[in-house]
Amino acid sequence: MKAIVQVGYGSPDVLKLKDVETPVPGEGEVLVRVYATSINAGDYFTMKGKPFLIRPMLGLTKPRNGRIAGWDVAGRVETVGGGVATFAPGDEVFGATGMNGGAFAEYACVPEGSLAAKPANLTFEQAAAVPVAAITALHGLRDAGRLQPGQKVLINNASGGVGTFAVQIAKALGAEVTGVCSTRNVAMVRSIGADHVLDYTKEDFTKSGLRYDLILDNIGTHSFSDYKRALSPQGKVIPNTGHAGMGYVVRSYMLSMRDSQVGRMFSGTPHTEDLVFLTGLIESGKVTPVIDRTYPFHEVPAAMGYARQGHVSGKVVIRVSPPGSEERREAGEERP
Fold first, then answer.
1. HSE (CB half, 13 Å, CA atoms) of 60?
2. Domain CATH code at residue 66
3. Inter-CA distances, 172 with 62, 87, 109, 278, Å
4. pTM exceeds cut of 0.90
């Protein structure tokens, strides 16, 4: 099969399209024929090999064992490993591979507990934009932030992959939502449901005098003391970014142990029950993926280069292989 293999750390040039062996699903795993995938911030950090704390898991000088990049998947079940009872060949699914990657490929093994039936009203490309980003938004708001109906929530970087889902999920949970973004994204953030939109190039929400019950920080543009100035007495800021560096991560962790207004970093790992919850919101029209650009599979390095510029509105999606391509390939109508 074709796959994007990470051969080192650094620029998108370390991502190479190669022929590799098709994986075999192990116990509790599902082999998915990947039709589409998408780029997350974690893919960029893994490509760079930064922060260095991630390298013991991946390889100190370069990723070990021909690591295949990517987390999000949308496609059809090819076959299943032992003990899998939920899915069968031919099922349309979406989910995520986890920290080990493997999604930037024609086939990927995914834990059964990290998959769900694809939302019926989404294309595979739309579905591929959902798993990691939407689950991160859901966990940050519902679980870490314990968001309640009627509360006021501010989404810092409301126009990014997590932010666009966070705006819609917060509205679905009954909150009054303020989104912070750049001038060019104001109309888009308002169109997906934000009650109020602040242009950070024109105003600083930490100095406005307004107070919020919850701040989901997806970018790390302010100090935690600044964020606290914008919180209600019982409010909390939930940190959710690696863009501000390890200092931000360490500070948030240390502060969370002694300051009830600072939450801890949290996991965005998809689980079936959360994907099913999101499917309900998607199929009811309350949540819709925002896709900035779609790239063909062989242009993953270019897609990563665009994403790392930091100006993506929503998600960047990779079209791996269209539905039916395997049948055409077997019939000799498409070159492998």
1. 0
2. 3.90.180.10
3. 42, 29, 32, 10
4. yes
